[in-house]
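Quick note —
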Amino acid sequence: MSSPSRHQCLVYEGAPSRHLPALASLVRQKLSENYRCLYLNSPVMVAGVRCYLAAAGIDVAHESAKASLVLSSDQGHLVQGSFDVDRMMHTLEEALGQALSDGYEGLWATGDMTWELGSQKNLGKLLEYEWRLEDFLSRHPAMCGICQYHADTLPAEVLRQGLLSHSSIFINETLSYINPHFLHAESYSELAVMNPELDSMLSRVAFREDAS
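Predicted structure written out below.
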């Protein structure tokens, strides 16, 4: 069986808190593998994830104090509220380099794309970011993570683009799907986004309250 991609997407509907138990379990696993774990989201979600991490058996205060666990709402990658791809990539590159310098095996990161895009929601930059992130991860095996796509706050076209740019789909801490619709940047076309099978796939993999 193929191992899941290090660049995964999580598509979810409804309350964002619904998928936090699965992410908390994965954080516990990555911490045990000596990865620095970065969670990037709104202040409300950062506060919420602390509870789920504690419920998963993680000493949040201890892991945070030694910087094994970084829970952040920082939006330093934005320029006047606008998502800046270059700055975001530089931020991740620096974070990975620091994690390795500090003796970690690597950096595992997850962020909610709605939050990362900032108030101006420059959706046109998101696909460029995903392609560049895919390339970055292919060149840096110590980096891995999950991009979170909230179906209730992002347009259908952006969800389709998110699906096309990730080779693996995160379902929970023990299950990931190989994405048959994944395309490398050089194979992407506007026609690919119009494929009706993408909506069917999104409907099947979207994290819901009753997901098992």
